[in-house]
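pasting for ref
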Amino acid sequence: MEQGYNYRYFNEMKCIMCTDDRYSRQIVLKNIQEQGQKKLTKSHVVVIGCGALGTTIANNLVRSGIGHVKLVDRDVVELNNLQRQNLFDESDVGFPKTSIAVKRLERINSNIKIESVVEDVNHENIEDIIKNMDLVVDGTDNMLVRFLINDACVKHEIPWIYGGAIETYGITMNIIPNETPCFRCLIQDIPETGSLPTCDTVGVLNSIPNIIGSIQSTEALKILLGKEVNTNILTYDVWSHNFNSIKLEKRMDCECCGKHNFEFLNKKTTDRIVMLCGSGVFQITPVKKTNISFKEMFEKLKKLGKADFQEDFLRFGYNDYHFYIFKDGRALIYGTTDEKVAKSLYAKYIGT
């Protein structure tokens, strides 16, 4: 009996020591220490977007011991994701990103809560997604979603960290409601459809999302620990090693943080998507109508699939999907009966 008691005691002590040892290299940091680690263990963070940025951020936060990490994404893993999205491998192609990511992360740290949300972030669910969270970290590639995050976080006074990476260039910015400028102080309105490049049309070097995601996850720890955070916009080009820190002034006339006019949380600024003819064709009408240059879009899309254009529309084919794109940004997408897939295709190949 005595031997059994000692054995159980040894195992219990070993378990406690292992838990402490997991974060030992972090606890000895003068910036964190034991009290800081306890704060992190009680923290709740949501990462919106589980691509190149999101997987880097989630990986870092889970290994750092954040007590509750929620991952949100609507997409499934594609083969071309494997070049830069570091939680996935070939066996994951075709499965929801957040579901796969959670399984990987649970094998890294089983002592915390890791939650998967396979949803399309929109004005109807964003407030529920961020409810009771201490911090929101941006891992998305969609500008409309960023405006929604900004509205919801400013409204509920939850800090969030903006991040983006494309080609060899990345950008990040901390947004602390009532203290710093918000995202709409940086970008006042949603860009015109097709005006911004996407990773699918111009590419992305796999090192830049790792760098930007690591900066974001570091800033996340500082925010959660109540430390002083950087309030400038940070940009970095990994190819040229060009780093910039840019001061942004808060706009007193900002619709969001100045006037508390949360336009993106209401239906006035929501993409309209409807299924036509009952099956296989979606029509997406963007938030902001524009006058698309078919010539410029053709030059980008012809590298990815079959494309041609006439005076009134541009046609594009990729795998089993076919697009008809019109001057005002409206598009017909053939080849799927899934609304999430249609919206994802629109974002990838046409842009926000």
